[in-house]
Amino acid sequence: MSREVFSTCNPLAVNCVLYQEAGMINLWGAGIYYDGVTCWDVNSSGVITGTTSCTTTSTTTTTTTGAPVEYQIDNSATGTSYDACNGSTTTSLVYATPGNTVPYVSMILYDSTALTTPFVGSSGWRKLTGPLGTYAVEIDTNGEIQNYVTC
User: Fold this and answer.
1) Which candidate, 137, 127, 111, 123, places its Cα nearest to that of 74?
2) Which mean pLDDT values do the consecutive 10-residue runs of the chain (151 residues) have?
3) The sheet that has 18-21: what strands, in order across it?
4) What totals of helices (H) and strands (E) does the chain contain, helices first?
């Protein structure tokens, strides 16, 4: 029997969260998830906690990635993360690859849902609001997050 799996990150890794349905609802639950290559230990919150030895069975699991993740960002950079969190207003949309609902260092933000043109950042902090919270981020000219804090 095949079962679709959604995740907060791609590729899968420790600390990713698995879900049973798109829209990040219905946590996976405790157990072992086999992605065709690796067996992952998953805790009762759906978080991957590590790898485990694995014996394959006839069960097939399909991993599905969803649509790009939409964020709102301030086009103007400020001097500090505090200023970005408290004094900035988000003015445009940017997008991350499917499943990236929380920013991380090295995550790339793009100008469109096609995910082909990176958002051009510059020095300074910007407010970034996504599906799971608001952050102050530093983004380089290649759209890569260099640093972030939770607001």
Assistant:
1) 127
2) 63 76 54 72 78 60 73 90 90 92 94 92 90 94 93 93
3) 25-27, 18-21, 3-7, 61-63
4) 1, 12
Tokens of 129: 């609001």
Distances 72 to 14, 44, 80 between C-alpha atoms, Å: 27, 31, 18
Q: Which helix (H) or strand (E) holds 84?
A: helix 81-87
Is residue 63 within 8 A of residue 18, CB to CB? The reply is no
Residues composing the chain:
151
User: CB-based burial of residue 73 (10 Å sphere; 0-12 exposed, 13-18 middle, 19+ buried)?
Assistant: buried
Query: What is the phi/psi pair of residue 85, to 5°?
Result: -65, -40
